[in-house]
Specification:
Layout: E1 6-9, H1 27-42, E2 63-66, H2 70-79, E3 87-91, E4 118-119, E5 136-137, H3 159-167, H4 175-185, E6 204-206, E7 217-219, H5 229-245, H6 248-251, H7 273-283, H8 335-354
Parallel strand pairs: 1-3, 2-3
Antiparallel strand pairs: 4-5, 6-7
The protein binds flavin-adenine dinucleotide.
The site of flavin-adenine dinucleotide has 34 residues, from helix 2, strand 3 and helix 8.
Keywords: Signal
Signal peptide: 1-19
Pfam family, one: GMC_oxred_N
Length: 357
């Protein structure tokens, strides 16, 4: 049987993917970018990329993969390598414009139809400078998922991250186990810059209702750890950057601290710890590496949703394969780990199916 992968783009007119220009951008926020990007998009003949017919009632599938994101796209691809399996990949979003592959302009695609457009709930203690004090929560809604929005920073993480996963009761997820998957997909450069990678504050999601079409409520709870250690760690990072900035290599370029106070923080002495705490709580930068909402762990762990084979505890024939299974924040950006999860999950599924009676 011929190898094939059926792709069904739901809810969208697949023949006019790039022609719905008027709602591509939130006009309030992105008017300037809209004109140029649209001109570029319209100059390309990229329609009709996917013309598969929707499956008929009679067709059956061995696997249905929901979501073609960093992990899901890999799973669909790897499972479709078996010529005897029919794989259906369901994706609610569109084909992303090729311009999403230019990292320097990726932020432009937030607030567009390539983004689910979530907003976190209003909470105290952070995002004082956000509109209505609510944080935008970008998440890709496209073929490729959040890779349509991300900055393409490629980081593997620290071996200890994965050894911790294993120590939490997840055999097969130690560094020695996941390393071959990283090696399989690595050919990129690595960029590093200071981030709070192991925050002590943690947030949660809550379902609004039983209706699956209603978006969940997001409670990030940034900077809420009782000892205020997250803020202190961030300020230590700022001091370290200032130290690096004073070195001759940077001074050759006359690099200097930007001294205009952050609006809302003028009451604090500039460059004091109190000033930087106010700045962090006002701007609250994040790189959107949320994990662990469907945490992987043994059945005895009350927070665990899936086991180490990524099967949902207590439910048959359902697995979760994406960043939500990552049990702890890692010392890295999470896209490459998500791809690794997709690769490893594909091997797990193939193994389980090959061993079926
Ligand atoms: C703005 C931004 C920048 C980032 N930059 C980086 C970076 O530079 N480097 C890095 O390593 N990480 C980065 N990340 C994080 C990383 O890109 C994501 O964590 C990762 O892509 C998530 O992969 P995933 O497989 O878990 O889910 P996603 O890639 O989000 O895929 C989920 C897919 O499922 C689809 N879907 C959801 N519900 C349904 C449904 N009901 N039916 C059908 N389809 C559905 C969605 O449309 C989406 O396509 C960034 C994240 C953001 C938001």
């Amino acid at each position: 049987m011929e190898r094939w992968l059926r792709l069904l783009v739901l809810y969208t007119n697949i023949f006019s993917i790039y022609s719905v220009d008027n709602d591509l951008f939130d006009t309030q926020n992105k008017t300037n970018q809209r004109v140029n990007i649209h001109e570029l998009i319209n100059s390309l003949d990229v329609r009709n990329l996917y013309q598969d017919e929707p499956p008929t009632k009679e067709e059956t599938f061995d696997f249905i993969v929901v979501g073609s994101g960093s992990a899901g796209a890999v799973v669909a691809n790897r499972l479709s390598e078996n010529p005897n399996w029919n794989v259906l990949l369901l994706e609610v979003g569109d084909v992303a414009t090729p311009f999403t592959e230019i990292p320097v302009i990726s932020a432009v695609f937030q607030y567009t139809k390539l983004d689910w457009g979530y907003t976190a709930e209003r909470e105290e203690g952070y995002c004082w400078g956000c509109p209505n004090r609510r944080m935008h929560w970008p998440r890709g809604r496209a073929l490729g998922g959040t890779t349509a929005l991300n900055y393409m920073i490629h980081v593997r993480g620290n071996p200890l991250d994965y050894d911790r996963w294993e120590a939490m009761g997840n055999p097969g997820w130690g560094y020695k186990d996941v390393l071959p998957y990283f090696k399989k997909l690595e050919d990129a450069h690595i960029k590093v810059y200071p981030m709070l990678v192991h925050p002590k504050s943690y947030g949660y999601l809550r379902l609004k209702s039983k209706n699956p079409f209603q978006w969940p409520l997001f409670y990030p709870r940034y900077f809420t750890d009782p000892g205020n250690d997250d803020i202190k760690t961030f300020i230590a990072a700022i001091r370290e950057i200032q130290r690096i900035n004073r070195q001759p290599a940077f001074q050759r370029f006359r690099s200097e601290l930007y001294t205009k106070p952050i609006p809302g923080c003028e009451q604090h002495a500039f460059n004091s710890d109190a000033y930087w705490e106010c700045a962090l709580r006002t701007i609250t930068p994040t790189l959107h590496h949320q994990v662990a909402t469907c945490k992987m762990g043994p059945s005895g762990d009350p927070e665990a949703v899936v086991d180490n084979r990524l099967k949902v505890h207590g439910i048959r024939r359902l697995r979760v394969v994406d960043t939500s299974i990552i049990p702890l924040p890692i010392s890295a950006h999470v896209n490459i780990p998500a791809v690794m999860v997709g690769e490893k999950a594909s091997d797990i599924i193939k193994e389980d199916w090959t061993m079926r009676p």
